[in-house]
Amino acid sequence: MLAPEAGDVSELAIVKGQTTTVGTETYKLTPARYHLLATVDPVQLYRLVNAPTEATVTITGGPAPFACTGVGVQVTAEGTASVRCAVPADQTVFAGLPAKMDLALGQVDDALVIPVTAVQGGAGSGKVWVDAGDGSDPEERSVTLGVNDGVMVEVTEGLAEGDSIRQFVPGFVAPVEEFCYEVSPGVEQCDSGMSW
Hints:
Blueprint: E1 7-12, E2 27-31, E3 34-40, E4 54-59, E5 66-75, E6 81-87, E7 99-102, E8 113-115, E9 125-131, E10 139-148, E11 152-157, E12 164-165, E13 179-184, E14 187-191
Antiparallel strand pairs: 1-2, 3-6, 4-5, 4-7, 5-6, 8-11, 9-10, 9-12, 10-11, 13-14
């Protein structure tokens, strides 16, 4: 018998001298290869629709970053999402090592970008609120979205450079920064900026 690839025989379903027929499963082979599995938030799946087939892997305390191939997105029936890629056979790795997978999901130069907090929607299309600057209510405007890095998003249609937009969509609660200061040696007081 000849195995289709290198690996360890992890289960043998035949004993010495036993006869068998063609097509009978006689052994189970655990391939001598590894893959990287990264869990992602399901909300990020829109960004992975046109994911590349190659990623860059960095193993904590391991070799220099290297390319892994066969990138695929998996979603279970429970809604858990993950990205998987094959580690090249020439890389020395061990099961369970912490690693980071970087996917280049798109790059644009000289793009019109706005904060993701300013857009209602996040994949393909959205709405922004444009200020006229005359004190009137902002105008709701549809926009076409491009590359998104989770902080800034490209606007390909619907806005022009110089348009003034709201930083947060209506109903979004802006984050409150704490301001901390020392009130006496070793005692710190923090205020959230709220008035009482």
